[in-house]
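User: Round two. Same drill as before: sequence, then structure, for each protein.

Assistant: Same drill it is. First protein:
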Amino acid sequence: MSENRLDQVMESIIALPEDWHGAGSMSEKTLRHLTKVLGEMQPINYSVETGSGKTTLLFSHASTNHKTFALDSGNGSISNVKASPIFNAEHVTFVEGPTQITMPAFDFDQPIDVALIDGPHGYPFPDLEYYHLYHHIREGGLLLLDDIQIPTIKNIHRTLEADDMWDLLEVVDNLSFFRRTAHEGVSPTEDGWWKQGLNRELYERNSKPPVPPTVLQRVARKGKSVLPPRVKGALKVLVRGVEE
């Protein structure tokens, strides 16, 4: 879809009430910027989001194959989308249920161009969503992280910002835009904590080779069994002074 057509769709979305559904929506500023970014990415062949709402309406026109993992819970986040005349149902598949259950069972069978994490915000659920998505996002693809004002989401933002796998492009209101780099990153089936930028300083500090003992330290260690107590005490004082 052309950027102009996507802009027209966005005008229709912006005209919807702020309380269009009970789960809340992105600000007009954020939605307009997201529309611009998605328009510049065309074509988008495969996209994924957790949560549902106005962004689902937008993705239904911006992407030819969009997966929405969401739970309605009576708040209208899915039912209002499906009933909207703006919705392009042909391009969207809903995977309904708690994402912590539905995502592990889902087969992501092609590289993801854009992924939006905006599902349950309580720890550890956003982390689980990230785990099931990150290694499917193609090089150059985008990861969008919404509601980073919430500490549990901010923790993910800080981790990704320091990680070589991601470039933080910008933050608009509470939505951060990350682009997947060519860096291999951490395998989903291994540990690799030392490869992540947030942990690197601690790992490098603890991995430095031990400092060779000074002459006084060597003399003190060697003389432990042969020197008189008074001499040992004097050596201890000297060694402590050198170490400090």
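Second protein:
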Amino acid sequence: MKFSKMNGCGNDYVFIYLPENKVTHPNELAVKLSDRHFGVGADGLVLMDQSLLADCSMRIFNRDGSEANMCGNALRCVAKYMYDKRLVTKEEVSVSTLAGVKTVKLQTANGKAVGAKAELGVPSLMSIETKRAVNCLAKIGEKAYEITPVELGNYHAVRFVKNLSQKEMRIAESLSRSSLFPDGVNAEIAKVIDRENIIARVYERGSGETMACGTGAGAILFAAFLKGLTGPKVNIRLPGGVLEVEYVKGKIMITGPAKFNFEGAL
């Protein structure tokens, strides 16, 4: 079985192209390959395949084997894989996901994709305890924390904080398992620097803290924009790098790098 290790802003995955490989138990394989001590090491597993709906399809499995609907960083990497391997010859690639068909416009140099601008879809506020609101309260232990619940392919709970401390990340970890979200949630903590810049950290359901999260960055911008904290375009600095996020005509667009780490065989 051949695989590629790729990352978008340090959010790394093992990518397997199914027309050339057979995968029978993707959940178990994701756990095995993602182990950073006994496996390849990654935030999860991405299976790429042919599609009748788009240029290709992708399925994402988190580090714990659970399946995610979407991943903005993996999406850019899939488009790069298809272009670099000459499986598509155009610089705009469509990818079918569990959250619908997404379009990626590649930035290329010397016949290779070096970055991409991806359309993540239409964000919306999630319904928490039968209501949709920009400001909701989530109780962790004896304390309640203000969050903005956002759906953008995946489910997100965004908190704006004064600092990105380990204490705040422990709250994010607890929030990701809150009973408010029966299927779990990606929890983001974010600090607004000014109307065009935000710094953030993310605790992803099924993977833990990651270097970056594409849909998480989109959820942060959407929440910040609804609260009047920023304009419709911001740079979000995560531990793995910077993602440029825009809210355009009701959709979230995200621009960032897509890089090959290495290839191998199992």
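The first strand starts at residue 2 and ends at 8.

User: Perfect.
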